[in-house]
Amino acid sequence: MDKLNIMIVGVGGQGTLLASRILGTIAFKMNYDVKVSEVHGMSQRGGSVVTYIKYGTKIYSPLIEKGEADIILAFEKLEALRWTEYLNNDGMMIINEQEIAPMPIITGTAKYPSDIINIIKQKYKNIFTLDALKIAKQCGNLKAVNIVLLGVMAAKTAIAKQIWDEAIRETVPAKVLNVNIEAFNAGYQAI
What we know:
The chain has helices at residues 16-29, 77-83, 103-106, 116-123, 132-139, 145-156, 161-171, 177-190, and strands spanning 3-11, 33-40, 48-56, 69-74, 87-96, 126-130.
């Protein structure tokens, strides 16, 4: 593998930063050069958040341009649509079906777009969707959506499951480790 470009997109409070740390740990464990860059909108107020993770033999910049993402983990449907142009033609997008209304929709000045998944699937073929919030709730922690999505990604990539498990155990706080391991395994088996 020369390099892998991953984007995590969501809104503030969804655990995108923890997910990026886990992915960075995985790359490090595989002896790759890794760069991570976090871009925050109004993240503390539920605004858009995007994290870039690039790893490979030698990485010079963490930024990913339009059409360069190999994988996009979308923690929310509207964020999936917002960042779709960054996915390369053969790339994979994993989308949580959750809808979190941004401020223009809450105030009534805009409408939440309908049929987002089908719009994305018209252009890209490797699109996987699931209700990660429902799975996280079944595992006992609504905040484990990020780990459910990482589980799906793990099942769809060639990275050994053991490396994922080790990275999660090293990165996730001990008090929520068991529920996150359960959420990861549920995501791994979901699709």
